[in-house]
């Protein structure tokens, strides 16, 4: 991955226990590169295209199989809005936690356990904010107020940061918990750029 795609280089992971104890774990002989998906995903598509892949944008409908090797992928083409078919040997269903490929092709996919992740993208804190935020450190927080069964996080992203949490409890107030996390971290006065939520598979099917 070229440096032009990296918005931050993380050299330390900080674990914060339920009692507030903080343990810094240095990343020896390297770093973890942070990317912005809005830029990184198009970069990957362009690199695949330059390597010989055909990039086709559409919505997955179903797979159809015949007696010979291979499978037909049926999809709706975004540009023409027509249903089309592509013959292939392999299908990789990398279409998110609520994968339509998995839902239609994998038995018991509806039994997957999920946590709901919620995070807020905030502007990078400046010297005026009372915080020990470190742009080269990821914080992972285990605190029942933030998440009763998962964890909260503060992940630097260059000029911004992701502050959020996850939980498997449907009635838990994600926004209230994230607000508490921001306040505890001294980040409550940072400008909020956007808010996002998404499901994350907790464990695969046996």
Concise overview:
15% of the residues lie in helices and 38% in strands. It has helices at residues 37-50, 100-105, 174-184; strands spanning 8-10, 12-16, 22-26, 32-34, 58-65, 71-77, 83-88, 113-123, 137-141, 152-157, 160-167, 192-203.
Describe the protein's architecture and organization.
By secondary structure, the protein is α+β, with helices and mostly antiparallel strands. The chain has 3 helices and 12 strands. The strands form 3 sheets. It has a 7-stranded mixed beta sheet with strand order 3-2-9-10-11-8-12, with helices on one face. The radius of gyration is 21 Å and the shape is globular. The two termini are about 35 Å apart. About 15% of the residues are buried.
Task: Briefly note the structural class of the backbone.
Answer: alpha+beta
Radius of gyration, Cα only, in angstroms?
Answer: 21 Å
Strand content: 35-45%
Strand segment tally: 12
User: Portion of residues in helices?
Assistant: 10-25%
Q: What does the secondary structure layout of this molecule look like, with pairings?
A:
Layout: E1 8-10, E2 12-16, E3 22-26, E4 32-34, H1 37-50, E5 58-65, E6 71-77, E7 83-88, H2 100-105, E8 113-123, E9 137-141, E10 152-157, E11 160-167, H3 174-184, E12 192-203
Parallel strand pairs: 2-9
Antiparallel strand pairs: 1-4, 2-3, 5-6, 6-7, 8-11, 8-12, 9-10, 10-11
């Amino acid at each position: 991955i070229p440096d032009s795609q990296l918005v931050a280089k993380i050299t330390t992971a900080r674990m914060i226990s339920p009692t507030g104890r903080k343990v810094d774990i240095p990343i020896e002989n390297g770093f973890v590169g942070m990317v912005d998906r809005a830029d990184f995903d198009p970069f990957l598509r362009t690199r695949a295209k330059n390597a010989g892949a055909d990039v086709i944008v559409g919505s997955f409908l179903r797979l159809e199989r015949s007696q010979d090797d291979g499978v037909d992928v049926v999809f709706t083409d975004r540009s023409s809005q027509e249903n089309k078919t592509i013959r292939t040997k392999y299908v990789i269903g990398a279409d998110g936690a609520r994968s339509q490929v998995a839902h239609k092709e994998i038995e018991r996919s509806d039994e997957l356990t999920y946590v709901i992740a919620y995070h807020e993208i905030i502007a990078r804190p400046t010297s005026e904010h009372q915080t020990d935020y470190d742009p080269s450190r990821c914080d992972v927080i285990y605190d029942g107020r933030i998440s009763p069964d998962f964890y909260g996080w503060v992940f630097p992203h260059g000029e911004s940061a992701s502050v959020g949490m996850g939980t498997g409890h449907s009635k838990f107030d994600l926004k209230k918990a994230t607000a508490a996390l921001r306040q505890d971290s001294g980040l409550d006065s940072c400008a909020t750029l956007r808010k996002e939520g998404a499901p994350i598979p907790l464990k695969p099917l046996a």
